[in-house]
Amino acid sequence: MGAKRVQFGKDPSKRADFFVEIAGEEPVRVLQVTDTQIINSKGCRYEGRLSAEEMKKWAPENVGVRMTRYLDEAVGKAKPDLIVHTGDFVYGEFDDSGEMLALHIALMEKYGVPWTLALGNHERESKIGERGIADALQAAPHCLFRAGDTEGCGNFTVLVRRGGKDIAVLYVLDSGYWTEEKPHGIFPRQREWLERKARNFGGLPAFAFFHIPPAAIVTEAEKYGLSSDFRPFELSGKGTFGGWGEPVRPSMCVDRDGGLMELFRKIGVVGVFTGHFHKVNTSLLCGPVRVTVGYKTGEYDTHAKERLGGTLLTFPDEGEEGFAVRPVPVCFRED
Fold first, then answer.
1. Helix (H) or strand (E) holding 159
2. 315: enclosing H helix or E strand
3. Model's pTM, two decimal places?
4. How far is CA 225 from the centre of its chain?
5. For a surface tag, which of 154, 192, 252, 309 has the fewest beta carbons within 10 Å of its beta carbon?
6. In what order do the strands lie in the sheet with 206-209?
């Protein structure tokens, strides 16, 4: 699945936190998966939180049917050099023991390729906390993760090399919680960190991965059919794909002031990859920056059954943007 041509680890040059080195001259293949959101009904904290049907459906023995087969199929189709998960790895409220976290890490490890995670809002509902999650991720041999020393948990860089040359940098960011006490956002210290780190990469094209989308995609989607009188709609056009299956307001997103997108343009970010909204699975050009809300990976929680799987980024690739984004659909009959 790409492992034979990939080397990875901590960046010896110390410009980035990690590096991924691809042998040969073929385009680099990065598979985005998102919102796997494993629920362990047997770990339910509160009596009555789930119905009898949900208790059965989300039992841990059903992970294979509800999620793993989608992940397996997406990886098998995409043959990635790197897998990036954009958050809600597990549903932490139902995983105070960390059992599902450990299970999911083992599932990712079996592919034998480097992988990384941008934390979502649901993982850290677990009583093991951010520190426990970070420790588990950092102990996994193929996982590139650094808790970091700025706002949030998990802001770091991955330098991508091909044939001995630097070709891109990936920024993995923590877009925050989803509570009144700890709101979502990419905050000032993170933005300062981004601008500082970008000086290390000399204008290399960059891609950013985080969980909650920027508000710019909502504004752009209004051109395709998003309105206050919401109806689901499909998107099409040059380099545009996917569907918009739930109402989303700018206040539900990060970067309501537009400053982050402006910073992305300044430091050379050409593509942004997010998740969070389970029935929004699309890719749109927002000015010079392409914003993608990836295909949800698996059946946990709400989803659009026709848009499950993963999303593939390839670069360098043909086209004026210099890279390509394509869905990796995975469809099974409903069980």
1. strand 156-162
2. strand 309-315
3. 0.97
4. 25
5. 192
6. 6-10, 18-22, 156-162, 165-172, 206-209, 269-274, 289-293, 280-286, 241-244, 233-234
